[in-house]
Amino acid sequence: MVLLQSWFLAxxxxxxxxIGPVPTELGVHQGGLASCPSPAHxxxxxxxxxxxxxxxxxxxxxxxxxxxxxxxxxxxGYVHATVSSAFFGFVDDxxxxxxxxxxxxxxxxxxxxxxxxxxxxxxxxEALAAAAQRPAEPS
Length: 139
What we know:
By secondary structure, the protein is α+β, with helices and mostly antiparallel strands. The protein has a single domain (2-132), classed as TATA-Binding Protein. 29% of the residues lie in helices and 27% in strands. It has helices at residues 2-15, 52-64, 120-132, and strands spanning 42-48, 69-75, 78-84, 91-99, 104-111. Strands 1-5-4-3-2 form a five-stranded antiparallel beta sheet, with helices on one face. Helix 2 (52-64) packs across helix 3. The longest helix has 14 residues, at 2-15. The protein is globular. The N and C termini lie far apart (62 Å).
């Protein structure tokens, strides 16, 4: 009986922490972030901004203020973070890239698993766009 309970517990924990494989197309390639493989579980936008690096800092501050965010990689002009859903633990990968030469902030949010994200990734990018386009607070 104990063995059956242990097996059932392991199965349930596995079902409710659905991480999925890390996308292979992460990072900046040929001057930009990858396009979305499917709009059903991915969102990607380019925002024209006067100062891409300042906009990246503002967007990153807004992103890391959210719960369950883990910054995986941060280099000058680029950030990769993961965001886990509260209940099931689904993982989304979020990338932000400051294209200084183009005057653009690029952002991409993609779900690792599933055929639909129910608009979560697009909503996340809308919130980051609002933060990126806000004027910096004086220190």
